[in-house]
Design a protein that fits this description.
Blueprint (H helix, E strand, L loop, with lengths): L6 H28 L2 H29 L3 H18 L12
């Protein structure tokens, strides 16, 4: 159960996640109506660009400062995980349900 000891805690955590997803669905619908798809898409792309710059600057700092291999491996693993999720392949440890 994802490291949670009590089953009731896991159920409540799942309920909170579902509630946040439900609420922000309506926030997204409101923003599409209010701002428009084009502006939202361009804003999203700008956010992605800034995130890539942030990750890149962290990688450069690690190489320059020589923090060791463990940080580099951690960042590369994070990028790989994000890439798998963005490509729709999901988390590799999940198995299909019968």
């Amino acid at each position: 159960m994802s490291g949670v000891q009590e089953e009731s805690t896991a159920i409540w955590l799942a309920a909170v996640t579902a509630a946040v997803n439900f609420i922000f669905t309506f926030v997204g619908l409101y923003l599409v109506e209010r701002i428009g798809r084009r502006r939202l898409t361009l804003g999203s792309l700008a956010g992605l660009y800034l995130t890539v710059l942030f990750y890149g600057s962290n990688g450069v700092q690690i190489f320059v400062r020589g923090w060791g291999g463990q940080y580099i491996v951690g960042i590369l693993r994070s990028w790989a995980k994000i890439g798998r999720i963005e490509n729709g392949r999901g988390v590799s440890s999940q198995q299909p349900r019968p």
